[in-house]
Amino acid sequence: MPLKLYAFPPSPRGFKALFAAHQFGIPYEFHLIDLAKGDQKTPTFLALNPNGRMPVLDDDGFVLWESNAIVEYLGFKAHVLPADAKDRLALTKWLYWESNHWDPTCAVYVFERLVKPFFGIGEPSEAEVAKAETTFHRLAGVLNGELEKHRYVTCDTLTIADLAIASSLCVAERVNYPLENYRAIQRWHADLKALPAWAQTAAMGQLPAA
User: Fold this and answer.
1) 116 vs 96, 110, 208, CA distance in Å?
2) Options 3.30.413.10, 3.30.300.30, 1.20.1050.10, 3.30.1130.10; which CATH number does 85-204 get?
3) Confidence of residue 210 (pLDDT cuts 50, 70, 90)
4) Percent of the chain topping pLDDT 70
5) Peptide bond into 55 cis (omega under 30)
6) E-assigned strands of the chain?
7) pLDDT at 93 over 50
């Protein structure tokens, strides 16, 4: 029985789980959680994740929420995680970095410039974006510095760290992250966008033109 993925593909976090499944070739049964319709608030979904957030993975009764935990589990299923503890934690530290720093900062751009117009919940606040910009540049500098050293985030091979961090860029053109001066990130983003798994995932989350 294929595992189940509950996600809203236009969301970077939903994109992340689906992108990982596609990249690793993991068969899954897709369940759309339409945030616009409030699917995340239904009793059925809350029984899976009481936080009322997607994505969620259900592998024959083993339920995981938190997008990076799902990516890590899919990597385990695909046998691509390092066996050595130090090598494994070299990836895990980037998952923590993504969830604690990169994702929350990118989320300001996403909320103000994409979520608000899409859900009709008010005018975008460029003041909020401006407050996030200093942090964004600090973090982008860290990421760009690593990507100047090797093709991918931790080495010259694609890992779960890349899948987790890059997913925020699935809406880069729509939210206009200030990436003009980060050539290594631009190159890395282009490499990932060229992957069939990225295109397959992006096709699931097409939004109407702005």
Assistant:
1) 27, 9, 14
2) 1.20.1050.10
3) very low
4) 98
5) yes
6) 3-7, 28-32, 56-59, 62-65
7) yes
Of the candidates 164, 149, 19, 140, which has an alpha carbon nearest to the alpha carbon of residue 91?
Answer: 164
HSE value, Cβ hemisphere, 13 Å, CA-based, for 120: 2
CATH fold of 3-77 reads Glutaredoxin (3.40.30)
DSSP per-residue string spanning 135-163: HHHHHHHHHHHHHTTSSSSSSSS--HHHH
pLDDT in tens, 122-174: 999 999 999 999 999 999 999 999 999 999 999 999 999 999 999 999 999 99
Contact 17/31 with Cβ under 8 angstroms? no
